[in-house]
# Entry
Amino acid sequence: MRDPEAFAAAARACDVIVNLAGVTAGTPEALALNTTLARAALDAADAAGGRPVLLASSAAVYGAGHAGICRETDAPAPLAPYGAAKAAMEEALAGRAGAIWLRIGNVAGADALLGRAAPEGGRVLDILPDGQGPRRSFIGPQALAAALARLVRLAAAGADLPSVLNLSLAGALPMDALLAAAGETWVPRPAPAGVIAQVELDVTRAVDLGLVPETPARAAAVVADLRALQETRA
# Structure
């Protein structure tokens, strides 16, 4: 954003641009920078003569989804400011050549559940009437990196890719199952009104492209993915 000429020069030297930069919280003006960042990446791609651009959007654009299932063909219906900002980003830049919008699910270790230390007094987890925590589509950081690497190779080879792509592991995991797999303790409380019970991404497109397996995610495997990465960085 500060040096578009340098950005364009970097774009000319690459095959694919991957833009994971974004703003997750703050004022409406701060959240609007998601659109500015995405536009800068697409402008750099254009200035370089055209490059595929993978852009990080979010499962948050779906809101509650349709019966908890979110498909790329569904109209966005965000419920929170972050999701609204990502939906506005997609809408503002719809139709830009080379753009591939990645609606990414919860990434273990980069989310509020497993990515933050327990607050003073311990964790509190909303529990739904069925006795489980809210269910979300998750992906481990290493599984996400592998999926992105394959997607980059496909884009660089000129593969016919969809302009919108859900990206997570298959299925939806209860948050209490993830905490249990991580050896975390928590205090349950009845889920207040407005808590979304389930956000499950339909990952048929991602499976067909070989980005993620068809088998549903397991909480233990997602936590193991995160722990293995943390151990290599320790």
The chain has a mean pLDDT of 94. The chain has one domain: 4-233. The two ends are 33 Å apart (CA to CA). The CA atoms of residues 127 and 133 lie 5 Å apart.
